[in-house]
């Protein structure tokens, strides 16, 4: 059976019933960064499109941001926390190595009947969570799922490294997935991929068993994000284009059928290159990285919520989400809203 047939012939179709997002109050501007490291607003805007990012308060953890975003998504979906059956948090900045951040979110929401766990797929995590939960709902294992992308990247940023510290920010985005009624929209096609041969291009080397947290490793900046930006850039454009094309094809869509493309928010030049290769005009590509920078797993989730709430697409229209991140990982989804 082809992948298209198997996705469409699952017992239940799955829709996105609500979205939510949250960003911390504190805004960190390019000018403020330029006062700390050798950079400029002009360099950051020209090379990335980022103007400012949000930074979580000291006592504000990933689970707190995730909970705020989740409450908004539940409210929009009209789903009570106690009726949530599955919670997946995608994050590379969990509150604690164990238990999972999803467990803290379950507790703070009072979602006492939910199964809760985290996944680690960097910037691709939210769409990995979407594919996993879509399959679990369509197979009948769960009736609904709360998927969340949440990150406190400011906690793993080397604030002395101008090549990375200008890129990242904090925030959370969430969506409620549930069985769709016949008249409702549905997630039509999903795709995900990984290339573990390229782990070295983008990683946090320390903090795990390979390079434990010691004061020497912390002083050597081994527990912060490192990236070979130019290499990552090339792979990002190619992989995101391929993943988006796959879901567009499997959903039987053409570029002109897509009301909105919501890409991972890492770099405006990457987004422009993908729009160009997919032949989707820029005005149908959602961008908010100027306000938030790259928030890893949260980025596409926050963008989906903002696009949804600002009317970037309507009921019955088609949207495509596409992401890319450390791993390397990538994923895409085509949705009839
Ligand atoms: N301010 C000023 N100069 C900077 C700088 C900064 N913040 N960061 C780097 N530079 C300098 C470099 O040192 C280099 O100087 P040199 O030519 O004297 O060596 C020059 O600017 C060019 O650096 P380079 O790394 O080639 O820039 P770039 O055009 O590739 O842009 C990124 C850098 C990180 C913005 C870009 O590569 C990128 O976005 N990569 C992909 C990131 C991504 O998608 N991540 C997604 C996965 S989550």
Molecular structure report:
The protein is an alpha/beta fold and about 325 residues long. The chain folds into two domains: about 5-185, Peroxisomal Thiolase, Chain A, domain 1, CATH 3.40.47.10; about 185-335, Thiolase/Chalcone synthase (Peroxisomal Thiolase, Chain A, domain 1, 3-Layer(aba) Sandwich), CATH 3.40.47. Helix content is about 35%, strand content about 25%. It contains twelve helices and 13 strands. It has helices at about 5-10, 30-35, 40-50, 60-75, 100-110, 125-140, 160-165, 215-220, 230-250, 270-280, 290, 295-310, and strands spanning about 15-20, 25-30, 50-55, 85-90, 115-120, 145-150, 170-180, 185-195, 200-205, 225, 260-265, 320-325, 330-335. The strands form four sheets. Strands 1-7-6-4-5 form a five-stranded mixed beta sheet, with helices on both faces. Strands 8-13-12-11 form a four-stranded mixed beta sheet, sandwiched between helices. Helix 4 crosses helix 5 (about 100-110) and helix 9 packs parallel to helix 10 (about 270-280). The chain is globular and about 55 Å long. The chain starts with a helix and ends with a strand. The mean pLDDT is about 95. Coenzyme A (COA) binds next to helix 3, helix 7, helix 9 and strand 12. Coenzyme A binds near residues 44, 162, 229 and 236.
Record the SSE blueprint:
Layout: H1 3-8, E1 14-22, E2 26-29, H2 30-34, H3 41-48, E3 52-55, H4 62-77, E4 86-90, H5 101-109, E5 115-119, H6 125-138, E6 144-152, H7 162-165, E7 170-179, E8 186-194, E9 202-203, H8 215-219, E10 226-227, H9 229-250, E11 258-263, H10 268-278, H11 289-292, H12 297-309, E12 318-325, E13 329-336
Parallel strand pairs: 4-5, 4-6, 11-12
Antiparallel strand pairs: 1-7, 2-3, 6-7, 8-13, 9-10, 12-13
Helix pairs in contact: 4-5, 9-10
The chain binds coenzyme A (COA).
């Amino acid at each position: 059976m082809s992948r298209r047939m198997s996705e469409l012939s699952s017992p239940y179709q799955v829709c996105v019933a609500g979205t939510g997002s949250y960003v911390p109050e504190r805004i960190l501007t390019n000018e403020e960064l330029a006062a700390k490291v050798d950079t400029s607003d002009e360099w950051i805007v020209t090379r990335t499109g980022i103007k400012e990012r949000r930074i979580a308060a000291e006592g504000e953890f990933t689970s707190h941001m995730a909970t705020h975003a989740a409450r908004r998504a539940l409210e929009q979906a009209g789903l009570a926390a106690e009726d949530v059956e599955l919670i997946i948090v995608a994050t590379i900045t969990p509150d604690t190595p164990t238990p999972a951040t999803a467990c803290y979110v379950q507790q703070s929401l009072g979602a006492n009947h939910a199964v809760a766990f985290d996944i680690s797929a960097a910037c691709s995590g939210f769409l990995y969570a979407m594919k996993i939960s879509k399959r679990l709902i369509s197979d009948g294992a769960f009736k609904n799922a709360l998927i969340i992308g949440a990150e406190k990247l400011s906690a793993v940023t080397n604030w002395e490294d101008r090549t990375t510290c200008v890129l990242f920010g904090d925030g959370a985005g969430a969506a409620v997935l549930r069985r769709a009624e016949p008249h409702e929209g549905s997630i039509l096609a999903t795709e995900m991929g990984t290339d573990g041969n390229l782990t070295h291009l983008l990683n946090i080397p320390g903090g795990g068993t390979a390079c434990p947290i010691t004061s020497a490793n912390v002083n050597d900046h081994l527990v912060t994000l490192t990236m070979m930006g130019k290499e990552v850039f090339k792979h990002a454009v190619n992989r995101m284009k391929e993943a988006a094309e796959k879901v567009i094809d499997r959903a039987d869509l053409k570029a002109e059928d897509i009301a909105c493309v919501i890409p991972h928010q890492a770099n405006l030049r990457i987004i422009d290159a993908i729009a160009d290769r997919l032949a989707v005009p820029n005005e149908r590509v959602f961008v908010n990285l100027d306000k938030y920078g790259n928030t890893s797993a949260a980025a596409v989730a926050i963008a989906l919520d903002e696009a949804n709430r600002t009317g970037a697409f309507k009921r019955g229209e088609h949207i495509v989400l596409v992401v890319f991140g450390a791993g390397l990982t990538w994923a895409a989804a085509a949705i009839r809203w």
